[in-house]
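Appendix B. Raw example, untouched.
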Amino acid sequence: MDDKQLLSLLQERESSSAQFVWGTLAQERRRSVREYYRLPYGTEVEGWSDIVTSEVQDTVEWILPDLVEMFLSSDDAVEFEPTEADDAEYCQQATDTVNHVFRKMNDGFLVLTTAFKDALQIKTGAIHWRKEKKRIRKVITLENVSALELAAQSQEDDKIEGQDVTLVPAIDQMTGQPVFNLDGTPAVEERFTVRISRVVEKKCIKVEAFQPDNLLVQRDWSSMMLADCPYVNRNMEVTLSDLHEMGFKDVEAKELAASIQPGVGDAEDQRQMRRGLPEEADLDREAVETADESQTKGWLRIEWVLADFDGDGIAERREVYRLADKVLSNEECDEVPISIGSPILVQHRWDGMSIAEIVSDLQVIKTELTRSVLNNAYLANNPRKTVLIDKNGAPMADIDDVLDGQPGDVIRVRQPDALGGDLTPFVGNQMFPLLEYIDSMGEKRTGVSKMQQGIDPNALRTDRTAYEAGQLTNAAKQRVKLIARMLGETLVKPMFKGILHLLTEGDMEPIAFRLRGRFVKYDPNDWRDGYDATVNVGLGTGDTDKQMLVLGNIAQTQLMLAQSPLGEMMVTPKQIYNTQAKRIALGGFKNVGEYLKDPGDAPMPKKPEGPPPEVLIEQMKQQTAMARIDREAQIKEREAQNNFALQQQNDERDAARERAKAEYDYQLELARIAEGRYKTDKDNAARVTVAKISHPESILPPGWGVDPETGAVVEGPDPFQVLMAGMETINAKIDAPAALVRDPATGAVVGVAKGGQVRPIVRDEAGRVVGHH
């Protein structure tokens, strides 16, 4: 197969693929984009509501943040796993370098966000990775160099931006001695200090998300994985300067300008329509003339096709750069450096479904319902008016006043009932449940719920448990998790494997960068291309707390095992570091190196060896002796406590006996006093009777009384009252409670206090209390 036959094959494949991409697929994408931007449907009526609801836009914008967070919330968006035992170190280097290339050397966040949004909005997200040569201008300063040294270090394209020349004594390089002229004067030489501007070409890996409508895939291909697809075409708009930087310096401006986008002819307006932009945004950029030929624009095709170009009977993969009718390069390659992904898989097709498609009909329905509610509100608030006419058809009110409609204006009428109203009842209350039903349908289809958006009216229900809320949140996220897994396997994983493939092709320079707080330099030529890739997909904000809890339990288990005899067999410092690093990443902190140092493959620190056996024996003897002394001291202390408790019990028993005896004596004394009082009262009563008989007067004047001994009436205090007062004093002492009196030093009982008097106790020879004085 020659270049002409190859060109014919490529044009045929391009035409066949373009019929589908710019036919049915383009119409579906155009509709989704127009609905995303809420452009008119074309059914609007002038004077009535033309609102377009935002179901497509809301759904896309609510899912997108979760997707981005799931892939980019950790330091490593991808991890490579070794397939052989000796690959562990290189595999970790590959993981770190690929993540650095994606995040730092390319704007990884913008790449994934753009591709995900394309997939959610217009079916397909597409990513292309390739090597590029960048021309970097560097400024080099050479200080105090000779003319020969300057010539040796200069290159052909260098530009000298600044130069200082000084004269210094010449020195012989062999002897190190000054050089003199023939006349004996010291020789001098020129020394230069210059600033050189130099353009350096550096190979780099470029990763970009491009417009899906610039991708052509063989029409009958049935998978999102393009690795084995017979024909893939990426067409891109480039300038003549871009082509020259790629190395195609023989391309002329007119050749590039004649290379239009495949399948659409001269139609920039058709591209605008596919993008869903309004017609007024149309710009015919190909028609813009420029005096600078380097900025001439045209369309470059980069194609990957299976063809038997070398004639060996086996089709090989060819990578072809071409304009519309001119092949620029044709080389054999081993992969298609493009990955695509859709949020919803359509089996046996390379194009899936977008989120916009599954809510498109809901947006149409809700738009019409919302418009009807608003139109009804307009009529309810501003009802139409009726005007009477006379028999000649003339209105009975001034029509200009009626049509003016300004609040508070005067309407001139010829008779009071000339104006009427065609009232329209407001039916919005009946429509609101239907609108909520449309919203619930969208939640079921997409997994984007009101709770996820933070607008669930039942979120603050007092009877809703945390478990119930968690279950609802997890159920709502299942759909989003499936979308993330689909995009991770079809779009993201091939991209990372492709970056690794480019790094290991053999022509990359060592890459130096800062990793976890330290500077590293890795040589990709030391790696293999056969590592297994694992794309890290996080579980979103709702699952972060759960992951933190699980990791906390793992950390506790690791520390417990590390302190046990099984520590060296089951736990390594690297595993403990990985657990803590994952917790830091889940906490939202990117640079783990600021908080923890990676131990690498260091083993667990060995526990310190114990003392010699003889020392242990001596320690055991000392411990035994100390234990015996402690035990004897404890026995003595318990004996003292028992003796004290026994003495205290004896004292309390003696005191109780004394209280009982004192109470008995007290009661006996009361009985004797009562008996004496009874006799005295009888005697006194007899004497009073005798006195009353002797003295007829029955009532004595104040201050007079009867002598109880003689019975005679005497002037002065009543002796009986004096006696009664003395009896009451005696009774108060007898009734006073008894209390034990103890020695302040020993606590032993030494007496009994009663009625203000202390009586010492009497003990026998055994020390027992037997009475008191």
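End of appendix B.
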